[in-house]
Amino acid sequence: MWQTRLCSLLEIQYPIVQGGLQWLSTPEFTAAVSNSGALGVLAAAMYPEEEELRAAIRRLRSLTDKPFGVNLTLLPHLGLRERVQRHVRVIIEEKVPVVETSGRNPQEIISLLKEGGVKIIHKVPNVRFARKAEELGVDAVAVVGWECAGHPGMDEVGGLVLIPKVARSVRIPVLAAGGIADGHGLVAALALGAEGVLLGTRLMATEECPVHSRFKEWLVRAQETDTLVVGKKMGDPVRVLRNAVAEALLAEEEAGLAGEALDRAMRQKIHRRALLEGDLETATFTVGQVVGLIREIAGVETVIKGMVAEAEEIVQGLARLLTL
Ligand SMILES: Cc1cc2nc3c(=O)[nH]c(=O)nc-3n(C[C@H](O)[C@H](O)[C@H](O)COP(=O)(O)O)c2cc1C
After folding, report:
1. Handedness of CA 45, 51, 52, 58 (dihedral sign)
2. Per the structure, how many domains does the chain have?
3. From the CA of 205, how far away is ligand 1's center (Å)?
4. What residues have CB less than 8 Å from 278, skipping those under 6 apart?
5. Do 54 and 163 lie in a common domain?
6. Are residues 243 and 103 both part of a single domain?
7. Which domain holds residue 253?
8. Do residues 113 and 11 both lie within one domain?
9. Nearest alpha carbon, ligand 1 atom 4
């Protein structure tokens, strides 16, 4: 039995959460994660219209009787204020159990969500934002280290330092995110003071994930050095798959491209084509350094249960070390 505070808070079997994955967190994929004993999270940004999101939530509900979440990305260019408010309304009406917020201070939607009985996990890249989120009343924070996919924040601090620092700085449960692929990562996260893990990249290399097979094959082939970070000069770095397009983007940034022009260039290159059409020549997309640990494509349940079984074995091995 896994009994961290996170398991009781989210009513899940294992202390494992899937982070929202833009273009990929469909009802089918999300349900596969929830059905395996972890928490699947639907990406609301994929369903801009109120009724599209409602239909996706209902579809997800028809595929699982387990708890699930909805990701609300609040980045200014994605999370247009009105759209987020509309999404929040649907989430409450549909009695979604958990919301994962990210990208910006969630202050303006917290009281609505809480009144609606929705639990909130807010994703942060540093100690200051974690403390602020706790003060605002979120139920848990997910902390992303510099190695993560998505937006690792500006500080370039890896998880090994950031996770214990955040765990020591807040009283609410902490999820470790970024760089976790297996039982070793899960045990390490718990040892560092987290009460669960949040996975992104690892779950892309699964049979159920709708990412293009060319991308999945790249995930298995890739090494931990095959990502790079662009967008620091815009104040919003994002880690992407290293290919010629990403290298060219970084070179332009290093040569002085910044602000809106950089934002525009990033949006032209960091594109769903990479994910959904497997176009790794003219587009790129976000992935974490953890690609270096992914060795095979497997079913979601195999990945989750394998991770848990491996973690249990590691813990028992460590306990034996002490009694010798
Ligand atoms: C393809 C992809 C799309 C993502 N889309 C989102 C998103 O829409 N919103 C969000 O908050 N995080 C997003 N993330 C970040 C993940 O939810 C998670 O925080 C991150 O992947 C953890 O790092 P890891 O990949 O090393 O496990 C995305 C990650 C990936 C790989």
Report:
1. positive
2. 2
3. 13
4. 212, 213, 214, 215
5. yes
6. no
7. 223-286
8. yes
9. 21
In a 10 Å sphere around its CB, with 0-12 CB exposed, 13-18 middle and 19+ buried, how is residue 314 labelled? middle
List all residues 6 or more positions away from 302 whose beta carbon is below 8 Å from its beta carbon. Answer: none
Whether residue 66 is contained in a domain is answered as yes
216 occurs within a structural domain: no
Scan for tokens 């293009």, then name that residue: 212
Whether the CB of 286 sits within 6 Å of ligand 1: yes
Nearest CA to ligand 1 atom 19: 19
What is the CATH classification number for the domain harbouring 86? 3.20.20.70
Find the 236 Cα to ligand 1 centroid distance in Å. 14
Gap between the Cα atoms of 36 and 46, Å rounded: 23
Residues 269 and 128 in one domain: no
Strands (E), 213-302: 227-230, 238-241
Residues 279 and 307 in one domain: no
Contact criterion met (CB below 8 Å) for 154 and 237: yes
**Is residue 140 domain-shared with residue 251, that is, in the same domain?**
no
Decide whether any atom of ligand 1 lies within 6 Å of the 45 Cβ. Answer: yes
| Residue 17 domain-assigned (yes or no) | yes
Residue labelled with tokens 């929040």? 88
Q: Are residues 130 and 50 in the same domain?
A: yes
pLDDT of the chain, 324 residues: tens digit per residue: 789 999 999 999 999 999 999 999 999 999 999 999 999 999 999 999 999 999 999 999 999 999 999 999 997 765 567 889 999 999 999 999 999 999 999 999 999 999 999 999 999 999 999 999 999 999 999 999 999 999 999 999 999 999 999 999 999 999 999 999 999 999 999 999 999 999 999 999 999 999 999 999 999 999 999 999 999 998 989 999 999 999 999 999 999 999 999 999 999 999 999 999 999 999 999 999 999 999 999 999 999 999 999 999 999 999 999 886
- Domain-located, residue 143: yes
pTM above 0.90, yes or no: yes
Mutational test site, ligand 1, from 17, 21, 186, 204, max ligand atoms within 8 Å of CB: 21
